[in-house]
Amino acid sequence: MPYTPSSLMPQSDAASPAGDSVSEPVDAMVAMRGVRKTYGSAEILRSIDLRVGRGEIAAVIGPSGAGKSTLSRLLGLLERPTSGSITIDGHDVTALSESGLRAARREIGTIFQASSLLHRRTARENVALPLEYARVNRHDRRRRVDELLERVGLSHRADAYPAQLSGGERQRVGIARALALGPSLLLSDESTSGLDPATTRTVLALLRELRDDLGLTIVLITHEMEVVRATADTATLLRGGAVVESGPVGELIARPRSRLGVELLPDRHHIESDPDEVVWRVTYTGAQPSLDWLGRLSAENGLDVRLLGGTVESIAGRPAGRVTIATRDDDELPRFLAQLGLHAERVEESAVAPPGEWSGAQRTGVVA
Q1: Does the keyword Kinase apply (predicted)?
Q2: Which of 97, 207, 220, 241 has the greatest number of beta carbons closer than 10 A?
Q3: Looking at the structure, do residues 228 and 303 belong to the same domain, yes or no?
């Protein structure tokens, strides 16, 4: 039976967050509208608009100083915005009382960088901590902790202390602790920072599995593009406290001038085209197109097509590709490719977003 806060907490503590319902679409778990955050004269977040759908894994990425940690604290209800509104699960949480905020925080689980476990507590005792604060009785607490440790694959390490666990195991304990009160929203704040690549992949795979099995909405706060590439459904780039570019990962990849999309699926250097050829960028995300699409362009449409370069990868478990081809001037090419499940944009060399680290966009600007 799925755990819900009301199944273990006293009825008065299990109430839904107080707050007025808003007209946000029913599929929106999180909506930030015009959110600003200042500390004295310093403006950390500037008019943030962010929407996360139910069941999405949404990544917020940016360099140090972009405002990611402040945004995470606002979403975790640890701080209030200076202005603007935040709705979570259909409730405006901006003006909640302190008691209302405490109740609302139980609907949100947070996974911290380096897991933030108490070193004098075993794995079992660390997971039990939120349940103790919620005054859950010992029998129900034990049952819930055992269930969670089994869920993250650590039943055999329940009595180990953090110093006896690997980095990946400690992070799994942190995930179990974040799930203790049955949240509907999970915040992952740089939770894979410092982990080796193999362990990072394991932790991210667990998060996707939990999202699918438990119907969680997950917000990933990260500076690692590989995390976004492996896990996220949507991505938002913060720079200087403002949203620079945002959208579903597939749409970002398909945008010909999106540097964030290029960082998700990097362009490779391609062969030079002839002066009398037209260069096209062909992209696809989601459904896998016919593998013989390039040959079919020639065979079925009589097009003389030359392959200049390309990248095909798996992004968040879905196939994604960006291929550069050259043809003689043929305005019918986009229509032919659309019939094969692909999207084509005519490319001017000056319009192609150059490859490079995503943080380089901070210097050159990001074209949305």
Answers
A1: no
A2: 220
A3: no
**Residue 287: per-residue pLDDT:** 61
350 CB contacts (<8 Å, ≥6 apart)? none
Q: 40 burial class (0-12, 13-18, 19+ CB within 10 angstroms)?
A: exposed
* DSSP code per residue over 240-273: TTEEEEEEEHHHHHH-TT-HHHHHHSPPPP-PPP
Quote the CA–CA distance of 135 and 132 in Å, as a whole number: 5
pLDDT per residue as tens digits for the range 281-329: 888 765 666 667 777 777 777 777 888 888 777 777 677 778 888 887 6
Amino acid 172: pLDDT? 92
Report the SS3 class of residue 193. coil
Percent of the chain with pLDDT over 90: 42
Cα gap 164→41, rounded to integer Å: 45
Is position 357 within any domain?
no
**Total-model pTM:** 0.78
Sign (positive or negative) of CA dihedral 101, 102, 108, 110: positive
- Provide the pLDDT for residue 16: 43
270 and 195 share one domain: no
CA distance 71 to 49: 11
The identity of residue 193, as a single letter, is S
Question: Which of 191, 222, 249 lies at the terminal end of a domain, its last residue?
Answer: 249
Which domain covers residue 299, as residue numbers? 265-350
Q: Answer yes or no: is 367 within a domain.
A: no
Query: Is the torsion defined by CA of 59, 62, 63, 69 positive or negative?
Result: negative
Domain count, the chain: 2
Lowest mean pLDDT among 30-34, 246-250, 319-323: 319-323
301 in the same domain as 196:
no
**Distance set, CA 136 to CA 16, 125, 151, 152, 237 (Å):** 17, 13, 20, 21, 40
Report d(CA 51, CA 49) in Å as an integer. 7
